[in-house]
Amino acid sequence: MHKGVNTIYLILFNGKVKTMSSIFRLYKASSLKDMKIERHEELKEELDLLKIFKKKQLRIEKQIEGCIRKDDWLNKTVDLIDSLPGFAKTLSFVCATELGPISRFKSRNALAADAGMHPCVDSSAGKIKHGRIRRVGRKLFRWALIEAAHAASRTNNPVAKYYKKKAKQKKSNHAAAIATANKLAKLMYHILSKECLYNPGLEQ
User: Fold this and answer.
1) Can you state the angle between helices 89-99 and 40-70, rounded to 10 degrees?
2) d(CA 72, CA 139)
3) Nearest Cα residue to 99 out of 112, 86, 85, 117
4) How far is residue 152's CA from residue 180's CA, in Å, rounded to a whole number?
5) Contact predicate 189/153, CB 8 Å
6) What is the pTM of this model?
7) 28 and 48 in contact (C-beta within 8 Å)?
8) Residue 17: left (phi > 0), alpha (psi -120 to 50), or beta?
9) In DSSP terms, which residues pair with 129 in a beta bridge?
């Protein structure tokens, strides 16, 4: 989906067309046929594909909501995870089904490690150095955490501040997302083990 959206914006930019706040409004606009753009047919094709994708996305989201409502444990777990910054029902559902019962994990570091979010530690000459994250664990769980980290960066809470701080330190949004995903994993352990909704006071 992101590739298609980027292609649409590139076509509009090259055609010197002012981008609308919603590209779906562009598809419905009667002016689409009158636009003097060299890649007019490609633009229409990308918009058609995007509409198909959105329909499929809505259908899958409804199916997920149906699964959540049928299972009391899943419903409760999804609600708890959904309270974390950057999460929504779909990402919360992915995390809940990937994790299973929180009793499987002895600590917040164990949960982070399950997603491959715990950094390698090198101890030498009395010094401890944290390296890159281990590329092991549940890939789908790791993906959901990183997606949530990017989404959380656009909110107004301590998690977003943490993301921006890491982005400045590491000079990389990707590295900041990894660090924030690790933080979210540890917050997730807390709210699930305590059965409490997230609140910014947890990070004080």
Assistant:
1) 50
2) 26
3) 112
4) 9
5) no
6) 0.72
7) no
8) beta
9) 122
Within 10 A of 19 (CB to CB), how many other CB atoms are there? 11
* Contacts (Cβ under 8 Å, ≥6 apart) of 203: 158, 159, 162, 187
Backbone angles phi, psi at 154, to 5 degrees: -95, 10
Helical ranges in the chain per DSSP H: 2-14, 23-28, 40-70, 72-82, 89-99, 108-114, 139-152, 158-170, 173-194
User: Which sign, positive or negative, has the C-alpha torsion 65, 140, 96, 161?
Assistant: negative
Structure token digits, residue 119? 């950094």
pLDDT tier, 82 (very low <50, low <70, confident <90, very high otherwise)? very high
**How many angstroms separate the CA atoms of 183 and 52, rounded?**
35
Tokens, residue 70 = 């049928």
What angle, 0 to 180 degrees and rounded to 10, lies between the N-to-C axes of helices 89-99 and 72-82? 120
Q: Measuring CA to CA, which residue among 97, 89, 133 is closest to residue 115?
A: 133
Tokens linked to 145: 């955490």
Which has the higher per-residue pLDDT, 8 or 60? 60
Output b/e per residue, 117-154; b: 16+ Cβ within 10 A. bbbeeeeeeeeeeeeebeeebbeebbebbbbbbbbbbe
According to the model, what pLDDT value does residue 122 have?
Answer: 46
Query: Residue 99 and residue 114: Cα distance in Å, rounded?
Result: 8
